[in-house]
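Entry for alpha-D-ribofuranose complex. Fields follow.
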Amino acid sequence: MRVKNDPETGGTKPRIIVMGSFVADLMGRAAHIPVSGETVKGNFFKVGPGGKGANQAVAAARAGGDVAMITKLGEDSFGDMAFDNFVNEGINTDYVFRSKEFSTGAALIMVSEETGQNSIIVIPGACGQIREEEVVSAIDGLVPAHVLVLQLETNFEAIAESLKAGVAKGLKILMNPAPAHEIPEEYYSMIDYLTPNETEASTLSGVKVVTVDDAKRAARILQSKGAKNILITLGEKGALILDHEDNFLHVPSFKVNTVDTTGAGDAFNGAFALALAEGKDIVSATVFASAAAAISVTRIGTAPAMAYRKEIDDFLSNNRPNR
Ligand code: RIB
């Protein structure tokens, strides 16, 4: 479904609604991530826009979507940073709420320079206080749209209401169950695309997911709970899909020079939402999203590291998945 004129192309862009978190990312890089009780001298510090919801919105917008964000910010400088960032990225802010009571959330991110891997503490703050009636009025006000993208970083009451409202409005539901948290059984049948990583798939299914075969077992369990299409991201091992016609499909990853994996899942999900909204099939959408994620890990940071459409298209012309 294409719903808005695109002044750049004269054509139209598919509309995507993201309900989720914004938090300010306070990120430090050091030779390694400290273990409990250890202090490590770092080499780099940056404050920037983050939060899984907002990162996915930026990824979808840069990939070519007409994106609307539903979230809640405090009335503080981090909230202003969020607002400016949404506006700069061309993201609709009609339903970005502000709270007088709660501060904008923050994430404390440590990144290893050696591996590019991270550890994160996220404090959702205002975005964890969004109310059910706010998300319902937002979805009402933002349709028509093609895809509703959700994660698990905000309060579950608002996520549950978004699911119900999205289904009622006929939106395709993409649920990225991050950070890992159980989902009550009755909500699975509302999910068109469930996209856990290994850790999240393990939490949701009870199967420890390491290999592609583990992912197949986990995907079957998630299918039996009612999710229509399951896509488990496996880092270097690519992505395992169990689609609504009961086919297992494996999409290999791209090999790149990794400097920071933070936000790679968000890059994937934002681009995947855009590709689905454009009408790509699940495998083509996964390849497109894998390319967006591969580009993002070659850059430092989260939202600022998301790939633009031309970069993704060029990357796909010049690279083949790592078989
Ligand atoms: O997925 C990465 C994001 O998770 C970071 O931007 C951080 O804010 C945490 O929420």
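NOTE: Residues 1-10 have pLDDT under 50 and may be disordered.
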